[in-house]
Design a protein that fits this description.
CATH topology of chain B: Protocatechuate 4,5-dioxygenase, Chain B
Mean pLDDT of chain A: 86
CATH architecture of chain B: 3-Layer(aba) Sandwich
CATH class of the largest domain in chain A: Alpha Beta
Shape of chain B: globular
Number of helices of chain A: 10
CATH superfamily of chain B: LigB-like
Largest interface: A-B, 43 and 42 residues
Number of domains of chain B: 1
Low-confidence stretches of chain A: 1-8, 309-343
Order of helices and strands of chain A: EHHEEEEHEHEHEHHHEEEEEEEEHEHEE
Strand order of the largest sheet of chain B: 7-2-8-1-10-9
CATH superfamily of the largest domain in chain A: LigB-like
Number of strands of chain A: 19
Strand content of chain B: 15-25%
Largest sheet of chain B: 6 strands, mixed
Oligomer: heterodimer
Helix content of chain B: 25-40%
Structural class of chain A: alpha/beta
Low-confidence stretches of chain B: none
Radius of gyration of chain A: 26 Å
Structural class of chain B: alpha/beta
Mean pLDDT of chain B: 94
Number of strands of chain B: 10
Shape of chain A: elongated
Chain lengths: ~475, ~300
């Protein structure tokens, strides 16, 4: 059982992970369908594993606990209620009394905020705990042997936000010394029948969904959790994955973003047309497999956070309203600019490079990424770090009217920004070997641009491509994308 | 028995912030102020309804989500605590309410006859959703009228907005027929906001109005377009443009409440009264009344 973290901080770990369904049929009416009954029995096998695992925390992410303002973490020590599902009320009521781990919840909240997420704990009598959580906890740990912690599923969260949430949970597990079992409460394919059915004849609602479910389960059975995480978008698109399979992103991130697990598919059955599976994942003793991922991991979140400030434009730095939890690591000066506690570049484990000394990205991408001996920079323009001012002036004013601007000043500022990023990553301008140039007005700007470019690159000998584009994302006239040798 | 009728329709959005800012005795959290435009609009709406003779509020809420058919509250009395799962810091409301089960059953039967999937909710442990509670409180805080509660079926909108609209039209027309047969005088409530992109962070003081504004200008323009159509009495055009509006603004009207109400009102061709428009965490909200009894003759648009 979990108690105080005293004396075990920093020694925590994820003991194993499970994927389980959260439909109430398995809890309330298993006798009505052979499939539901089978799932109920399989839950029993998981329960036994959990009892024998030595774990002290059940850490859940439920796709049925929807949040819209960041993420919420249950921290009521003893939530108690009689729950009725809004859809499946005819199946009966679900009285519950759980034993939550508020100390871990607080740690998780802090870890999430430290990674840039908006998060808060909730501890209110009568808070509506979702059906998925109730079903999972009542079937996995009916006697409340372990404390539990539950994290919400933000309906608007993207992959990056969800991955970071998983990493924050991992941070909290390690920091608090918990031995945690991670449970993703989610369906696979999620196309319910929309008319009454005979439960005895329940089936996956389409053959295509069934095939996708089986494919995913085959991969999970091989322990390749990260591969499934990478496939989540495709799966969701094809089989209407439950909440876009965010629970898989969370689980894979929490468990370390790799494929080296021993996987076991305990069961796979339909519940009212949806795909319901119980899967177990434990760390493997197999040698690490080579990973070829399409999408990189994300270490911190810097999403849509400046919207409360009425002066915030699309390019402005996020402001920090007093007490805004998502920006607690930042401090605002009188002009609203935000200074990070830690200046300079950060390099993630995947090689993504970010630096406060360069203008902030206007999308979900780093300033640069190191791949082997090469540095790939994102497209860089002349905006100034912190202020977003454009040397030489913008090409359009705030009303969209065309402005006169100085292409030479913009070009110099652009190249200086590139220099800053390269040097923050340990490289330099003279290591650049390929340049792509984007100009919005070739006839007007090319000659002047070319003169300034030569000042910096004539001796470097980098290859170059120059094209005209109709517009760039911010009101600038020039953007460069470079590839360089790393230090 | 005299023929019943729908005497008014109210677009009655349910941001819990409005109840929070009002500090009613039923709600646990306390506020200093906030969202006055909308709250004062609801005051005007209540004054208008006070002049009306009606028996029941029929409310369609997006926060009672169902997929297998349209569900209807079928228990005569509920008494519980409603805690908003998204804003539990703002809304923990102790409620007691009565349900007009006879009318609910009549609407359910009428809807079933129209080919819709329907179901009565008979579980006494069921907790009425906070959208229903909020809209009903804001329209009738004395709770002296029974309600009929309808769920929001999300399955149809899964296929397309147009399929959803067709379903909600059928449900609205079934509601009107059932009310007419019942002899009741009913007010119908569509518990929907307008545009629904919202902030993903909160200010430290929830009612700090210096942070409240429309999420973006495009969303505001769409809201104004819909309200202008309502003011001009172009109910049919509102319905026709709803699918685009929903797509462009992530509107909560995807839950079908407004379409249901417009259909129940017979797609009003008389001007609506805009009691208020304001934003809540960036979403557009309006309190709008269609007075079915005072619709001026000869002003059909």
């Amino acid at each position: 059982m979990s108690g105080s973290t005293t004396g075990r901080s920093g020694s925590g770990r994820i003991v194993r992970g499970y994927i389980v369904p959260g439909m109430p049929h398995v809890l309330l009416a298993p006798e009505k369908s052979a499939g539901w009954s089978s799932l109920r029995a399989s839950f029993g096998r998981l329960r036994q594993e959990i009892e024998e695992s030595g774990a002290d925390l059940l850490l859940l992410y439920s796709t049925q606990w929807i949040s819209v303002i960041g993420h919420q973490i249950q921290a009521d020590p003893k939530p108690k209620w009689v729950h009725v599902d809004p859809e499946w009320h005819a199946l009966g009521s679900m009285p519950y009394e759980f034993r939550m781990d508020p100390e871990f919840g607080k740690a998780c909240e802090g870890a999430a905020r430290a990674r840039g997420l908006h998060a808060r704990t909730v501890a209110y009598h009568g808070f509506p705990i979702d059906t998925g959580t109730v079903v999972a906890l009542k079937l996995l740990d009916p006697e409340n042997r372990l404390q539990a912690s539950v994290v919400s599923c933000n309906m608007y969260a993207d992959r990056a936000e969800t991955l970071v949430l998983g990493k924050a949970a991992r941070d909290a597990v390690i920091a608090t010394g918990r031995r945690a079992i991670a449970v993703a409460v989610t369906a696979l394919s999620n196309r319910m029948f929309t008319s009454p059915i005979d439960p005895a004849n329940d089936r996956i609602s389409s053959l295509k969904d069934d095939e996708w479910n089986r494919k995913i389960l085959e991969i999970l059975g091989e322990g390749r959790l990260e591969d499934v995480s990478q496939l989540a978008r495709e799966f969701s698109s094809q089989a209407n994955g439950d909440q876009k399979m965010k629970a898989i992103w969370w689980l894979a991130s929490l468990m370390g973003e790799h494929n080296d697990y021993d996987g076991r598919v305990f069961d796979y059955q339909p519940v009212w047309g949806t795909g319901a599976a119980l899967v177990g994942l434990t760390a493997s003793t197999k040698p690490a497999a080579r990973l070829e991922f399409d999408e990189e991991g994300v270490e911190s979140y810097s999403g849509d956070r400046g919207v409360l400030a009425t002066t915030t434009g699309p390019d402005a730095s996020p402001s920090a309203p007093a007490g805004n939890s998502s920006n607690e690591r930042a401090s605002a000066d009188p002009s609203g600019r935000v200074a990070r506690e830690k200046a300079g570049a950060t390099i993630s484990s995947s090689g993504a490079i970010r630096t406060d000394a360069a203008p902030g990205p206007v999308g979900a991408y780093p300033h640069a990424r190191r791949v082997g001996d090469f540095l790939y920079l994102s497209g860089i323009g002349p905006r100034q770090a912190g202020t977003n001012e454009i040397p030489g002036g913008p090409v359009r004013d705030s009303a969209g009217a065309r402005c006169d601007y100085d292409i030479e000043a913009q070009t110099r500022a652009t190249i200086e920004n590139i220099r800053t990023i390269l040097e923050s990553a340990g490289s330099s301008l003279d290591r650049v070997f390929d340049v792509s140039v984007f100009l919005i007005d070739m006839a007007r700007d090319f000659a002047a641009f070319n003169r300034v470019y030569a000042e910096y690159f004539e001796h470097v000998g980098a290859t170059r491509t120059t094209v005209e584009v109709r517009a760039l994302p911010t009101p600038i006239a020039v953007e460069l994308k470079v590839v360089a040798f790393a230090a | 028995m005299k023929q019943g009728r729908i005497v008014a329709g109210i677009l009655a959005p349910h941001p819990p912030h409005l109840v929070y800012a009002e500090n009613p005795p039923q709600n646990e959290p306390r506020a200093e102020c906030g969202w006055e435009e909308l709250r004062w609009g609801y005051e005007r709406c209540r004054k208008s309804l006070a002049r009306k003779d009606f028996d029941v509020l029929i409310v369609h809420s997006p926060h009672w989500r169902t997929f297998v058919g349209h569900h209807f509250l079928g228990v005569p009395h509920f008494e519980s605590l409603s805690v908003d799962p998204v804003f539990p810091n703002l809304f923990r409301y102790h409620f007691k309410l009565d349900v007009d089960v006879e009318l609910a059953e009549a609407i359910e039967e009428e809807a079933k006859s129209a080919g819709l999937e329907t179901q009565m909710m008979r579980n006494p442990d069921f907790r009425v959703d906070y959208g229903t509670i909020t809209s009903c409180h804001l329209v009738n805080p004395s709770w002296d009228k029974p309600i009929v509660g309808l769920s929001s079926n999300g399955a149809y909108y899964y296929f397309s907005n147009e399929v959803g609209q067709a379903q909600m039209t059928a449900l609205g027309e079934a509601t009107r027929r059932a009310v007419e047969k019942s002899g009741r005088r009913a007010v119908v409530l569509a518990s929907n906001s307008l545009s629904h992109r919202h902030f993903t962070v909160e200010p430290a003081i929830p009612e700090d109005m210096s942070h409240e504004h429309s999420y973006h200008h495009g969303q505001y323009l769409w809201d104004m377009r819909m309200l202008e159509l309502m003011k001009q009495g172009k109910g049919r055009q509102v319905a026709d443009e709803l699918p685009d509006f929903i797509d462009q603004t992530e509107s909560e009207m995807k839950a079908g409440s407004l379409m249901w109400m417009l259909a129940a009102l017979g797609f009003p061709d008389y001007p609506a009264e805009i009691h208020a428009y304001g934003t809540v965490i960036g979403t557009g909200n309006a309190v709008v009344e269609w007075d079915a009894e005072r619709a001026p003759a000869g002003v059909r648009v």
